[in-house]
Specification:
Helix content is about 75%, strand content about 0%. With about 110 residues, it is mainly alpha-helical. Helix 3 packs antiparallel against helix 4.
Length: about 110
């Protein structure tokens, strides 16, 4: 395998994804409506997709009935409402979830 060629392709792909938006949407030109729409709706759609993906294997019919997940989601929502910091919310929720599944809901 030619690792130099693969590395070059990865570099080119990274550079293109960083600079193409500046080429297609220059500073003096108005941003198209569909791009503005996507920038407003995609973050919420992505979060919804991640929640569904994370809860796909949870059994609400068997012990512990999804309690660690539901408590963690509640903690994430409370932390985010309190501080408004995504990293704190995600990190805090992860710590709470891991603590719950390793100590309380063994």
């Amino acid at each position: 395998m030619n690792y130099a060629l693969i590395t070059l392709a990865m570099i080119l792909a990274t550079v293109l994804t960083r600079f193409l938006p500046f080429f297609f949407f220059p500073a003096g030109k108005k941003t198209p409506k569909y791009i503005t729409y996507l920038s407003n709706t995609l973050p919420y759609a992505t979060i919804g997709l991640l929640v569904v993906y994370c809860l796909r294997g949870v059994s609400f019919a068997a012990r512990p009935y999804g309690l660690p997940e539901l408590l963690s989601i509640g903690a994430i929502a409370a932390l985010h409402a309190w501080k408004g910091n995504s990293l704190l919310s995600i990190g805090g929720g992860t710590v709470i979830y891991m603590t719950l599944i390793q100590t309380v809901f063994r």
